[in-house]
């Protein structure tokens, strides 16, 4: 078990406990000192390398069509985080006709949630093979089951959780005008997605609110107006995000640190 011992920022809880995973062990270097994750006193001598650091993770929550993907593009442009959309990863499985492709397609068509194990493993693969140490995980966790599975399999907690709060009528209008050929962009599926969002995503939102990690953004207005609310959330982390460089033993792009 790893414990985050250094203080992060006044805005973020410094007492979150993390469990060690292969994924965490893969991160040798990452964001600035203030994000370091160290082995706590009683765990010294456990054989684990001390001072291994965790990546900077932002979860992006919000109902269907609330503008998560749109705002993620702007965050990427400004702060250089790596965007991982859970929905895009699932759609890629469908397009590639993988063994889970048909099952995923049927669930997405029906607005239902794909088993957490499947989604988390896709995210884990991207996280482990990435050369980045700062991630925006969009459309995840959708459920408490998603959240717990990520903690168990990946072994990391988010540093920031964004919630794009948008009225249902606005989300419906946006989705029906999206025109990207998505199988779930129709009124029947949209109604189901909204119900599932209310029932299953709200508890996740409440969970992070109670942990002091949730930033609620009013998602009505122009894209730029909404981004103006997002900017100050990342500003305190800007220096760390700039310095962030990761040593990933699996990545051929990174020199060995030893
Ligand atoms: N502030 C905004 N005002 C009007 N339209 C917007 C705004 N933000 C995004 N849109 C448009 O609304 C649609 C949905 O946006 P986006 O795809 O970013 O939402 P999302 O939250 O990622 O949805 P989903 O969960 O379905 O993937 C897109 O066509 C996008 O261009
Ligand atoms: N954690 C997730 C994320 C998505 N899904 C399924 O994909 C659909 C589309 O997701 P978007 O984020 O692109 O809107 C969503 O309705 C779910 O069917 C999922 O199961 N789990
Ligand atoms: Mg999206």
From TrEMBL:
Positions contributing to a ribonucleoside 5'-phosphate binding: 91, 112-114, 139-142, 182, 193
Any one GO biological process: nucleoside monophosphate metabolic process
Enzyme class: transferase
Keyword Kinase set for record: yes
Pfam family, one: ADK
Record key words, sorted: ATP-binding, Cytoplasm, Kinase, Nucleotide-binding, Nucleus, Pyrimidine biosynthesis, Transferase
Single GO term (MF): kinase activity
Cofactor: Mg(2+)
Protein family (similarity comment): Belongs to the adenylate kinase family. UMP-CMP kinase subfamily.
NCBIfam families, sorted: UMP_CMP_kin_fam
Protein name, UniProt field: UMP-CMP kinase
Organism: Eruca vesicaria subsp. sativa (Garden rocket)
């Amino acid at each position: 078990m790893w414990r985050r011992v250094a203080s992060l920022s006044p805005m973020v809880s410094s007492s979150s406990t993390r469990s060690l995973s292969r994924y965490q062990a893969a991160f040798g270097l990452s964001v600035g000192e203030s994000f370091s994750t160290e082995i706590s006193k009683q765990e010294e001598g456990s054989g684990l390398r001390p001072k291994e650091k965790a990546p900077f993770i932002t979860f992006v929550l919000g109902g269907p069509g609330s503008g998560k993907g749109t705002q993620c593009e702007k965050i990427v442009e400004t702060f250089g985080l790596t965007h991982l959309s859970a929905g895009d990863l699932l759609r890629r499985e469908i397009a590639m006709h993988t063994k889970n492709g048909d099952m995923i397609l049927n669930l997405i068509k029906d607005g239902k949630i794909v088993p957490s194990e499947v989604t988390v493993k896709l995210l884990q693969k991207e996280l482990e093979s990435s050369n980045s140490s700062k991630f925006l995980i969009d459309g995840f966790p959708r459920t408490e089951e998603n959240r717990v599975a990520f903690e168990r399999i990946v072994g990391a907690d988010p540093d920031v959780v964004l919630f794009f709060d948008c009225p249902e009528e606005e989300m419906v209008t946006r989705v029906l005008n999206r025109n990207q050929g998505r199988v779930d962009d129709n009124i029947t599926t949209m109604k189901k997605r909204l119900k599932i969002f209310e029932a299953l995503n709200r508890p996740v939102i409440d969970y992070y609110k109670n942990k002091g990690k949730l930033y609620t953004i009013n998602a009505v207005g122009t894209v730029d107006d909404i981004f103006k609310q997002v900017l100050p959330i990342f500003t305190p982390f800007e220096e760390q995000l700039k310095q962030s460089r990761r040593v990933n033993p699996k990545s051929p792009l990174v020199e060995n640190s030893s």
